[in-house]
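[09:14] KT: can someone run the structure on this one? pasting the chain below
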Amino acid sequence: MKPLSSIKNLIIDMDGVLYRGHRPLLGAKEFLHHLEERETAYILVTNNSTRTPEEHVAVLKEMGIEVAPERILTSALATANYLGNLLPQGARLYLIGEEGLYSALAAQGFEFGKRGIEAVVVGMDRQLTYEKLKTATIAIRQGALFVGTNPDKSFPAEEAILPGAGAILAAIEAATDVKPTVIGKPEPTLFQMALQRMGATEEETAIIGDRLETDILGGQRCGLTTILVLTGITQKEELDTSNIKPDYVFQDLTHLDEAFMPLI
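[09:31] RB: done, C-alpha cells below
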C-alpha cells in the first residue's frame, strides 16, 4: 500500500462520490475547493454517458460545486475516442444512448442510421424501447461491432438504486450471444485518458470511487492507489465479503479530506 503522502494526482468518480441524483454528498464541495487551493491535479471521471461535460458542469453548479469542463471525462468521450481510432470518419453507427453519447460521437464525424451499420454503441438510455433493442440485435447478428460505454448494471439515484447501462448491455448480449467491447471503468481507457490529461504517472495517482467492481478494480488494474468512499453503491457489508480490496476506505469525502489534506 502506497502512503497517502505519495499521491500528487487524483482521478475522482462522480456519481456516488460527489453527488447522488441531484443531491451533493457530504464534503464534496469542500474537498474539491481544498484541491484547488493546493493546486493538486485532478480529473472527474464518470461512466455516465448521458451528459456532455458542459451539462455535468451545469448540474454540479446547481449543487454549489464549480469546475471547468476540461476537468470532466466521461465514458462517452472515451468511447468516441476508441471508435475514432478504429473506424473511418463517416462510418455509420446505431446508437442506444442520450445526448452526451450522441454529441461525443458526432464530434468524431460519425453518422447515424438503421442501415449499413458498422457498430452498435450502447449507453444509458432512459427512452429505451423494444424497437431499439430489436434494431441493435439485428445489426449485431449481421456483423456490426457491439460497443458499450460502461458495464454499470445500476446507479445510485436519490430515491433508490436504478438500472444502468449494463442492464441494457445484458439484454442485447442475451439476444445476440455476443459480448460487448466495454470502454468505461473498469477497463483502462478512461484511466489512461485521465492520466494523459494531467500528465501524471500511475505511481503518483489515486482513484477515488464508490464501486469495487469498476472504480477500485479498474484502478488496481492500472497500478493506481485505490480509495473507496462508502457514499454510493458499495457498502461495508459487501466490502467485507469481496475479493476486491481497496488500499484505503473512508466513510465519506469529509473523512478523506481530514486524512489527505494535511499531507499535501
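[09:33] KT: thanks! The domain at 4-47+185-263 is CATH 3.40.50.1000 (Rossmann fold).
[09:34] RB: yep, looked fine to me
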